[in-house]
């Protein structure tokens, strides 16, 4: 229902509310609007500036990456060739060192070069034969694959297969009774000493520290037996020379150039004295008539040892000729043979 006095009352109230606002506030409202607009403009400008700066930084990074990629891409062949050469050289040198140190087999005494003797390198092998009571033939067995469960290499057993395939080893620190060679009569107890050595090492594994080359082109070596429990590269077994002296099958070698390993000469002399007191082997009568050194000296003076020395000299000369093969041909021959 339309009430005319109600409309007039509302208009009167609106007029009263507007008229009640102070005149100072009505004058300041345009200033507030201008300040508000200025603040909004400043904020928008700052946001635009920040966004533009970020875009410029991103563009600079992208340009630098493109320049670096172009620089690397402009020389790909040189980098690939250089990288391949470096990696190939390092791999070849590493493989050669590992092969020569752990897998290359020393076939004969001629393969034992001076650098090997200078390092006094240890080698492992199987004794294929015992020629005298203080020397034997060793078939070098480096690396792995010689025993089960990873057995894929074998030690030859036939004489024709072992020809030029073994190292002639002279046991260091011990001098055994001499057998009958070149028409000379054997010393007493030479047969028993040879039998003892054959029964101890023939067909078995031994470890040899290569020390030097003697006048007969044999490799003088400190020989040890395999340890009973641990592998040979973790522990050292008994000295074969000391075992021979304790068993009375040999005497302490006291000539020039004698080698005793880590035990020393005193330990060898002590073992010899114990064997003499116990009257073992060649000491069963309490004394030895003629030592092996005296026996060799006597026959050398009589000239009966000339043939043996001549053979040893010929072998030594052959070794020297082979060692003169240095350079690329000699290295490749030893590496691939």
From TrEMBL:
**Residues annotated as signal peptide:** none
Compartments annotated for it: namely:
Membrane; Mitochondrion
Which stretches are annotated as coiled coil?
Answer: none
SUPFAM superfamilies tied to this protein: Staphylococcal nuclease
Q: How does it sit in the membrane?
A: Single-pass membrane protein
Gene Ontology CC entries for this record: membrane; mitochondrion
- Cited Pfam families: SNase
What keywords does the record list, in alphabetical order?
Answer: Calcium, Endonuclease, Hydrolase, Membrane, Nuclease, Transmembrane, Transmembrane helix
Gene3D superfamilies of this UniProt entry? 2.40.50.90
Q: Which residues cross the membrane?
A: 77-99
Highest rank taxon of the organism: Eukaryota
Reply yes or no: does the keyword Transcription apply. Answer: no
| Region annotation Disordered: where it falls in the sequence | 1-32
Record InterPro entries: SNase_OB-fold_sf (IPR035437), Staphylococal_nuclease_OB-fold (IPR016071)
Which residue numbers delimit the TNase-like domain?
121-285
Q: Name one GO molecular function term.
A: hydrolase activity
**Chief location category:** membrane
Q: Which family does it belong to?
A: Belongs to the LCL3 family.
PANTHER family for this protein = EBNA2 BINDING PROTEIN P100, SERINE_THREONINE-PROTEIN KINASE 31
Q: What is this protein called?
A: TNase-like domain-containing protein
Source species = Suillus luteus UH-Slu-Lm8-n1
């Amino acid at each position: 229902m339309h009430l005319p006095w109600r409309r007039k009352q509302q208009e009167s109230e609106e007029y009263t509310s507007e008229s009640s606002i102070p005149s100072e506030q009505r004058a300041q409202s345009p200033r507030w609007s201008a300040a508000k607009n200025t603040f909004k403009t400043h904020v928008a400008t700052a946001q635009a500036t920040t966004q533009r700066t970020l875009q410029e930084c991103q563009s600079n990074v992208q340009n630098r990456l493109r320049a670096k990629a172009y620089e690397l891409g402009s020389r790909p062949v040189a980098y690939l060739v250089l990288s391949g050469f470096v990696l190939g050289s390092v791999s070849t040198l590493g493989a050669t060192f590992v092969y020569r140190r752990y897998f290359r087999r020393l076939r004969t005494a001629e393969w034992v070069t001076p650098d090997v003797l200078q390092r006094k390198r240890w080698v492992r092998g199987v004794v294929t034969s015992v020629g005298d009571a203080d020397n034997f033939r060793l078939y070098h067995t480096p690396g792995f694959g010689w025993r089960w469960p990873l057995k894929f290499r074998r030690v030859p057993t036939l004489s024709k297969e072992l020809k030029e395939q073994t190292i002639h080893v002279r046991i260091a620190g011990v001098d055994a009774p001499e057998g009958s060679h070149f028409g000379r009569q054997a010393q007493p107890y030479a047969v028993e000493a040879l039998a003892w050595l054959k029964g101890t090492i023939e067909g078995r594994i031994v470890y040899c520290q290569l020390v030097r080359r003697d006048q007969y082109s044999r490799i003088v070596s400190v020989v040890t037996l395999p340890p009973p429990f641990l592998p040979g590269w973790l522990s050292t077994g008994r000295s074969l020379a000391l075992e021979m002296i304790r068993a009375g099958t040999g005497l302490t070698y006291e000539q020039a150039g004698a080698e005793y390993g880590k035990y020393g000469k005193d330990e060898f002399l002590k073992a010899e004295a114990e064997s003499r007191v116990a009257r073992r082997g060649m000491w069963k009568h309490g004394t030895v008539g003629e030592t092996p050194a005296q026996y060799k000296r006597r026959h050398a003076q009589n000239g009966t040892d000339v043939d043996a020395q001549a053979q040893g000299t010929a072998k030594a000369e052959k070794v020297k000729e082979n060692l003169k093969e240095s350079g690329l041909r000699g290295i490749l021959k030893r590496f691939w043979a």
